[in-house]
UniProtKB/TrEMBL annotation:
Belongs to the PAPS reductase family. CysH subfamily. It comes from Thalassospira lohafexi. NCBIfam families: PRK02090.1. It is found in: Cytoplasm. This is Adenosine 5'-phosphosulfate reductase. Pathway: Sulfur metabolism; hydrogen sulfide biosynthesis; sulfite from sulfate. Residues 52-219 form the Phosphoadenosine phosphosulphate reductase domain. HAMAP family: CysH (MF_00063). GO terms for biological process: hydrogen sulfide biosynthetic process; sulfate assimilation, phosphoadenylyl sulfate reduction by phosphoadenylyl-sulfate reductase (thioredoxin). SUPFAM superfamilies: Adenine nucleotide alpha hydrolases-like. Gene3D superfamilies: HUPs (3.40.50.620). It catalyses: [thioredoxin]-disulfide + sulfite + AMP + 2 H(+) = adenosine 5'-phosphosulfate + [thioredoxin]-dithiol.
Length: 247
Protein backbone atom coordinates (compact mmCIF):
# COMPACT_ATOMS: atom_id res chain seq x y z
CA UNK A 1 0.00 0.00 0.00
CA UNK A 2 1.35 3.43 -0.89
CA UNK A 3 0.77 5.57 2.17
CA UNK A 4 2.02 8.77 0.55
CA UNK A 5 -1.13 9.64 -1.33
CA UNK A 6 -1.54 12.64 -3.57
CA UNK A 7 -4.47 13.97 -1.53
CA UNK A 8 -2.26 13.93 1.58
CA UNK A 9 0.24 16.15 -0.19
CA UNK A 10 -2.50 18.57 -1.20
CA UNK A 11 -4.38 18.69 2.08
CA UNK A 12 -1.58 18.31 4.65
CA UNK A 13 0.04 21.37 6.18
CA UNK A 14 -0.64 24.95 5.19
CA UNK A 15 2.70 25.27 3.37
CA UNK A 16 3.53 24.11 -0.11
CA UNK A 17 6.29 21.53 -0.52
CA UNK A 18 8.67 24.28 -1.64
CA UNK A 19 7.74 26.55 1.26
CA UNK A 20 8.30 23.72 3.74
CA UNK A 21 11.72 22.99 2.25
CA UNK A 22 12.72 26.66 2.44
CA UNK A 23 11.39 26.92 6.00
CA UNK A 24 13.47 23.94 7.13
CA UNK A 25 16.62 25.47 5.61
CA UNK A 26 15.90 28.72 7.43
CA UNK A 27 15.13 26.97 10.74
CA UNK A 28 18.24 24.78 10.47
CA UNK A 29 20.44 27.83 9.98
CA UNK A 30 19.10 29.37 13.21
CA UNK A 31 18.33 26.38 15.42
CA UNK A 32 20.05 23.36 13.84
CA UNK A 33 22.69 23.21 16.56
CA UNK A 34 20.15 23.15 19.40
CA UNK A 35 18.54 20.13 20.99
CA UNK A 36 16.26 19.18 23.86
CA UNK A 37 14.31 21.94 25.59
CA UNK A 38 16.50 24.60 23.95
CA UNK A 39 15.08 23.54 20.59
CA UNK A 40 11.53 22.87 21.78
CA UNK A 41 11.14 26.32 23.34
CA UNK A 42 11.49 28.48 20.20
CA UNK A 43 9.55 25.98 18.06
CA UNK A 44 6.57 26.03 20.44
CA UNK A 45 6.56 29.67 21.47
CA UNK A 46 7.96 31.53 18.46
CA UNK A 47 8.05 29.63 15.19
CA UNK A 48 4.88 27.51 15.31
CA UNK A 49 2.85 29.02 18.14
CA UNK A 50 -0.51 27.20 18.14
CA UNK A 51 0.42 25.26 15.01
CA UNK A 52 2.63 22.60 16.55
CA UNK A 53 1.78 19.30 18.18
CA UNK A 54 3.65 16.23 19.40
CA UNK A 55 3.25 12.51 18.94
CA UNK A 56 4.00 10.05 21.71
CA UNK A 57 3.76 6.27 21.93
CA UNK A 58 4.12 6.39 25.72
CA UNK A 59 6.72 3.65 25.25
CA UNK A 60 9.96 2.99 27.10
CA UNK A 61 11.75 6.28 26.31
CA UNK A 62 8.70 8.49 25.77
CA UNK A 63 8.75 10.07 29.22
CA UNK A 64 12.00 11.89 28.40
CA UNK A 65 10.55 14.06 25.62
CA UNK A 66 7.22 14.37 27.44
CA UNK A 67 9.03 15.77 30.49
CA UNK A 68 10.96 18.32 28.42
CA UNK A 69 7.78 19.37 26.61
CA UNK A 70 5.85 19.66 29.89
CA UNK A 71 8.51 22.04 31.18
CA UNK A 72 8.10 24.25 28.10
CA UNK A 73 4.31 24.04 27.75
CA UNK A 74 2.20 21.46 29.60
CA UNK A 75 -0.78 22.45 27.41
CA UNK A 76 0.84 21.44 24.12
CA UNK A 77 -1.47 19.04 22.23
CA UNK A 78 -0.01 15.53 22.38
CA UNK A 79 -1.28 12.92 19.94
CA UNK A 80 -1.50 9.34 21.19
CA UNK A 81 -2.43 6.67 18.65
CA UNK A 82 -4.59 4.05 20.34
CA UNK A 83 -4.40 1.35 17.70
CA UNK A 84 -6.65 -0.90 19.81
CA UNK A 85 -3.79 -3.40 19.76
CA UNK A 86 -1.70 -1.84 22.53
CA UNK A 87 -0.67 -3.43 25.80
CA UNK A 88 -2.91 -2.53 28.74
CA UNK A 89 0.27 -1.49 30.56
CA UNK A 90 0.84 1.29 27.99
CA UNK A 91 -2.54 2.82 28.78
CA UNK A 92 -1.84 2.63 32.52
CA UNK A 93 1.60 4.17 32.01
CA UNK A 94 0.13 6.97 29.91
CA UNK A 95 -2.30 7.87 32.68
CA UNK A 96 0.52 7.82 35.24
CA UNK A 97 2.77 10.12 33.17
CA UNK A 98 -0.03 12.52 32.30
CA UNK A 99 -0.75 12.93 36.02
CA UNK A 100 2.87 13.23 37.08
CA UNK A 101 3.87 15.72 34.37
CA UNK A 102 0.64 17.74 34.50
CA UNK A 103 -0.05 17.32 30.78
CA UNK A 104 -3.45 18.78 29.96
CA UNK A 105 -4.04 18.15 26.27
CA UNK A 106 -3.79 14.50 25.22
CA UNK A 107 -5.56 13.72 21.94
CA UNK A 108 -6.31 10.00 21.80
CA UNK A 109 -6.79 8.99 18.18
CA UNK A 110 -8.35 5.68 17.21
CA UNK A 111 -8.80 3.88 13.89
CA UNK A 112 -11.93 4.61 11.85
CA UNK A 113 -14.50 2.00 12.94
CA UNK A 114 -16.04 1.66 9.48
CA UNK A 115 -12.67 1.12 7.86
CA UNK A 116 -11.77 -1.47 10.48
CA UNK A 117 -15.05 -3.32 9.85
CA UNK A 118 -14.38 -3.31 6.11
CA UNK A 119 -10.66 -4.15 6.06
CA UNK A 120 -9.90 -5.84 9.38
CA UNK A 121 -13.18 -7.38 10.56
CA UNK A 122 -11.57 -10.09 12.70
CA UNK A 123 -8.70 -7.93 13.97
CA UNK A 124 -6.12 -10.25 12.43
CA UNK A 125 -4.90 -8.08 9.55
CA UNK A 126 -1.52 -7.74 11.25
CA UNK A 127 -0.90 -11.44 10.49
CA UNK A 128 -1.37 -11.05 6.73
CA UNK A 129 -0.59 -7.43 5.84
CA UNK A 130 1.32 -5.37 8.39
CA UNK A 131 1.60 -2.36 6.06
CA UNK A 132 -2.16 -2.15 5.61
CA UNK A 133 -2.79 -2.77 9.32
CA UNK A 134 -0.37 0.03 10.30
CA UNK A 135 -2.03 2.28 7.76
CA UNK A 136 -5.51 1.67 9.18
CA UNK A 137 -4.52 1.81 12.81
CA UNK A 138 -1.72 4.41 12.83
CA UNK A 139 -1.13 6.36 9.64
CA UNK A 140 -4.70 7.35 8.80
CA UNK A 141 -5.61 8.35 12.39
CA UNK A 142 -2.42 10.42 12.61
CA UNK A 143 -3.19 12.07 9.31
CA UNK A 144 -6.54 13.14 10.78
CA UNK A 145 -4.94 14.30 14.03
CA UNK A 146 -2.41 16.47 12.22
CA UNK A 147 -5.09 18.54 10.51
CA UNK A 148 -4.49 22.20 11.29
CA UNK A 149 -0.86 21.76 12.37
CA UNK A 150 2.24 22.82 10.47
CA UNK A 151 4.80 21.08 12.67
CA UNK A 152 5.14 18.15 15.06
CA UNK A 153 7.68 17.07 17.63
CA UNK A 154 8.88 13.47 17.62
CA UNK A 155 11.02 11.49 20.06
CA UNK A 156 13.15 9.70 17.45
CA UNK A 157 16.89 9.36 18.03
CA UNK A 158 19.85 8.51 15.82
CA UNK A 159 21.04 5.75 18.15
CA UNK A 160 17.92 3.76 17.22
CA UNK A 161 19.77 3.02 13.97
CA UNK A 162 18.32 1.94 10.63
CA UNK A 163 16.63 4.79 8.81
CA UNK A 164 17.17 6.97 11.90
CA UNK A 165 20.99 6.95 11.60
CA UNK A 166 21.10 10.30 9.81
CA UNK A 167 18.11 11.92 11.49
CA UNK A 168 18.34 15.74 11.41
CA UNK A 169 17.06 17.99 14.20
CA UNK A 170 14.57 19.58 11.81
CA UNK A 171 13.24 18.04 8.61
CA UNK A 172 10.46 18.35 6.10
CA UNK A 173 7.52 16.00 6.25
CA UNK A 174 6.03 16.99 2.93
CA UNK A 175 4.00 20.11 3.59
CA UNK A 176 4.73 19.97 7.31
CA UNK A 177 7.88 20.16 9.41
CA UNK A 178 9.08 17.59 11.91
CA UNK A 179 11.22 18.59 14.87
CA UNK A 180 13.37 15.90 16.50
CA UNK A 181 14.70 17.46 19.73
CA UNK A 182 16.30 14.20 20.90
CA UNK A 183 17.89 13.25 17.55
CA UNK A 184 21.44 13.50 18.91
CA UNK A 185 20.71 12.13 22.40
CA UNK A 186 22.48 8.97 23.54
CA UNK A 187 20.95 6.29 25.81
CA UNK A 188 22.77 7.79 28.80
CA UNK A 189 21.22 11.21 28.08
CA UNK A 190 17.76 9.63 28.18
CA UNK A 191 18.65 7.84 31.42
CA UNK A 192 19.78 11.19 32.90
CA UNK A 193 16.39 12.75 32.16
CA UNK A 194 14.62 9.84 33.85
CA UNK A 195 16.92 9.97 36.85
CA UNK A 196 16.94 13.72 37.43
CA UNK A 197 13.16 13.99 37.17
CA UNK A 198 12.33 10.73 38.96
CA UNK A 199 10.32 9.55 35.97
CA UNK A 200 8.68 6.12 36.20
CA UNK A 201 9.67 3.44 33.71
CA UNK A 202 7.19 1.65 31.44
CA UNK A 203 6.14 -1.43 33.42
CA UNK A 204 7.05 -3.80 30.57
CA UNK A 205 10.66 -2.60 30.42
CA UNK A 206 11.49 -4.71 33.47
CA UNK A 207 10.06 -7.71 31.62
CA UNK A 208 12.52 -7.47 28.73
CA UNK A 209 10.81 -5.11 26.28
CA UNK A 210 13.09 -2.38 24.89
CA UNK A 211 10.72 -0.69 22.43
CA UNK A 212 6.99 -1.07 22.85
CA UNK A 213 4.29 -0.78 20.22
CA UNK A 214 1.30 -3.00 19.48
CA UNK A 215 1.01 -6.32 21.31
CA UNK A 216 1.03 -8.61 18.23
CA UNK A 217 4.13 -6.92 16.76
CA UNK A 218 6.31 -6.39 19.84
CA UNK A 219 8.59 -9.03 21.35
CA UNK A 220 10.90 -9.21 24.31
CA UNK A 221 14.59 -9.02 23.43
CA UNK A 222 17.53 -10.90 24.86
CA UNK A 223 19.32 -9.23 27.78
CA UNK A 224 22.18 -7.07 26.49
CA UNK A 225 20.60 -6.43 23.08
CA UNK A 226 21.84 -3.08 21.80
CA UNK A 227 19.39 -2.73 18.90
CA UNK A 228 16.64 -0.82 20.70
CA UNK A 229 14.03 -1.68 18.07
CA UNK A 230 14.97 -5.35 17.65
CA UNK A 231 11.69 -6.44 19.22
CA UNK A 232 9.50 -4.57 16.76
CA UNK A 233 8.16 -6.68 13.86
CA UNK A 234 10.91 -9.19 14.69
CA UNK A 235 11.72 -11.48 11.77
CA UNK A 236 9.85 -9.31 9.27
CA UNK A 237 11.12 -6.96 6.61
CA UNK A 238 9.68 -3.99 8.45
CA UNK A 239 11.27 -1.49 10.81
CA UNK A 240 8.89 1.48 10.82
CA UNK A 241 5.11 1.69 11.11
CA UNK A 242 4.77 4.31 8.40
CA UNK A 243 3.76 7.34 10.43
CA UNK A 244 7.08 8.97 9.70
CA UNK A 245 6.41 8.79 5.98
CA UNK A 246 3.32 10.94 6.35
CA UNK A 247 3.57 14.02 4.27
S1 LIG B 1 2.18 -2.53 14.77
FE1 LIG B 1 1.15 -4.47 14.19
S2 LIG B 1 -0.88 -4.47 15.19
FE2 LIG B 1 -0.03 -2.37 15.29
S3 LIG B 1 -0.92 -1.34 13.58
FE3 LIG B 1 1.07 -2.11 12.88
S4 LIG B 1 0.70 -4.18 12.02
FE4 LIG B 1 -1.15 -3.54 13.19
Amino acid sequence: MNVMREEDILTGGSMSLEEATDRVASLMSRYGNLQGAALIEPMVHEEFNGKITMTSSFGTEAAALLALVAEVDANLPIIFLDTRKLFGETHTYREQLVDQLGLTNIKIMRPDENKLKADDPDGMLFASDVAKCCYLRKVEPLQRALTGYDAWLTGRKRFHGGERDALPAIETAGTRIKINPLAGYKPEDIDDIFEHRALPRHPLQAEGFLSIGCMPCTDRVDPGTTDVRAGRWAGQDKTECGIHYII
